[in-house]
């Protein structure tokens, strides 16, 4: 059998077959591409989300989390990423809390703290340190600690402060006396290599002043006791060697010994009184006192016993002034001041007494015409054992504590005491006491 087929029909059939294959191929590629895109997006979307979340975390925001779908490798990575977010959030919160605590501690410390790098450049300073050195952190940041604390005279470079451990720094100026104590410690890294320094500074001006006064006080007490004891020993040795048999010498030697003994007793009594006042062990027996008549009576007592070399001049108020005070303590104050005025008044001189009211206070002034004092010593006469002329004061039998006791007693009455003096022109001692109000006078 023979078939006759036209080639055109064959070509048409082949074309249809090729078209079917082509369409199938395109469809397969399209489906494959779509599936690839879907699969890629399934993988890349969580990764993109993690990247975005990482960028948010880098700003310090840990409130958001990655949306995890599934439990495949990508899902497990998402869970791990969220766990990391939680741990970083906790660690950051802990670190921030510790930072705030440290900042609060540094800000509220009474001592100053300065941190430096290993070369000594300042990297941190708290507010107390800024107040103590008189400079802000911005002014000293990056500067050398040695230069800022003026340590050049004590150390040559920053490494020497570790050996020093601590030192006293004098930052005094013309207007302000300031002594600082600096304690140095080294900051080490995990390998125990030096990473910087921490310096703690504190104001020890008052502490040093008190320590200096304590040393001077002990020295003065020792000297004041040694002087009469040495004198007594010399005279007693002379008496023991036979001077007691001399009727002319023995009484004089015994008289000197008795005077020196009395002087030591006065000194010890004054010291005991000051010690009690320092420890607030002295109670004031206050009562209502009309001061003008009280002051007049004290002056009368001295006037009856004084010699003729000085004249008393009174300038007292003619009105009654009432004060709530301890009569015995204020009597002792007046005794100390008037005794000094008599001691230092020249023959033929005068002592002037004044008592007047100023607003709500009583003001008392006692003026002599003695040798006076240099201006720079006036405020010191109320210090313990201070004497302008030590040799003359000892000749007159003073202990050097009378005006110190007077100041303590006046201040215990909420008053004020001070002096004015000109060399060669005399001295005036003033003190004030609060006046009683009319209402309080009526109640008392």
From TrEMBL:
It is found in: Cell membrane. Coiled coil: none annotated. Residues 41-93 form the HAMP domain. The chain crosses the membrane at residues 20-43. It is a multi-pass membrane protein. It catalyses: ATP + protein L-histidine = ADP + protein N-phospho-L-histidine. Keywords: ATP-binding, Cell membrane, Kinase, Membrane, Nucleotide-binding, Phosphoprotein, Transferase, Transmembrane, Transmembrane helix, Two-component regulatory system. Its EC number is 2.7.13.3. InterPro entries: BphY/WalK/GraS-like, HAMP_dom, HATPase_C_sf, HATPase_dom, His_kinase_dom, HisK_dim/P_dom, HisK_dim/P_sf, PAS. Residues 220-437 form the Histidine kinase domain. Residues 162-216 form the PAC domain. GO terms for biological process: cellular response to phosphate starvation; regulation of DNA-templated transcription. This is histidine kinase. It comes from Halobacillus trueperi.
